[in-house]
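Convert to structure. Protein one:
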Amino acid sequence: MMQTAFVLLILFVVFTLVGIFYIGYQKTGIRAKQREIEGLEIIKRSQVLNFLPELQCSFDGIVYHDCYDSQKIAAFREQIQNPEKEYFYRTLLGDISIIISKFNGRILERGWTDPNFEKYDPENPNPQRQIQIIDEETIKEKDKRLIQFPVSIYDPNNDVYDFGVIFLEIYQ
């Protein structure tokens, strides 16, 4: 009788240890899957931004990929101030802050001149270059992911293309 109780106790301890290790293994797998889903969500948001007709360059109905119109950017910034539009874009993009930095140089035969690149400073972003679809309280409560990608910025007034970088601060 005592031997049976001892064997049952040992089996209980072994199964408990196996269960603990299995749960730990599953946690690791779940964390990896969660990071993968977060990465896909970030890519999805950047792609949605890339294909917004409100920002893209288009000529005669032809849309140019990775090209942003500077006048459309200014109009989009004004549209975001409308609460109905802000709600629409918040549901489309989530909690996001868009910073557009533009390189104002021109290419000459010997290289770049006028290297006036507006540097991105996460602590003090330039408000003229920022489109914010998030309220300040949410910024304090959520984690921030920053991604950046190069784009062409078209100035229709001067018919000039400039190099730019879009910084997306995505809050999760």
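Protein two, convert as well:
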Amino acid sequence: MSASHPLLYLSQSRAAVELISAVAHRDECVNLICQPGLSTAAVLDEAENELSNHGLRCVRVYGPASGGLTLRNLVGQIVARANPDALTDADLKAGFVTLTEPGEGYDRVALLVTEAHNLLPAAMRYVQLACRSSPKLRVALAGQPALAGALASDEFAFLRQRVTRTLQLPGPVQGRATGLLSVLASFCRGAAGPRVRLGLAAASVLLIAAVGWHQGTVPSGSVVRAGDAAASPIRPADKRRCRDDVLHAQSGRSLSDAEQTTLRDGCRAE
């Protein structure tokens, strides 16, 4: 698997278009990364509004800006329970069905999670279990760069394998550079001499490189494939297990007693 940088988009609207295309047309699961202090809400808002036009029923979950996104909170939002502390086993099952069965009028489900870097292990385990159980579930996890660390555990190798595209929103410096590049482009078009145009073009390249260096990544046109953004590589055995799980996934499969017990214990441990 070749290492590559996330696709970098210098506007939220362009990132939204790519996210919609990836989920609706290429059936991909997506990570959307932004720098601390910035928000991915506008991108997911646009995606939520558009994906339903492509046969996807959207399930939106809002993580806390600080602190952990617990399993109780995750499932409570999925089943629209006002008091997550009163979560029952029936709610765990209902949330699982919501994620794995598209329902009438839809052919797939899209789970959109903001502040996904705050997902606690039990909540991440629930999302992964739903992905294992239904090939019709698409997941978009939006959050800060720490999201890669949250997915780095060997336990979540399957979920990392499902995420085949990572999009990165610009930081403050990159956003300001967009305007400078537009100015340079207009100068290049209006410059009289070839030397002037060449000099301005070179300045544009240097500006792009400087912005990428400042943010810790140089923009590239490559796509982050499964596991590239994770802190640890996926082992061959994990790849085989993930492949087998996808091949044998059954839409609408119910939670087994063992899985339900594991999730219930996760709730108690939070």
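Residues 213-252 have pLDDT under 50 and may be disordered. Residues 174-214 form one domain.
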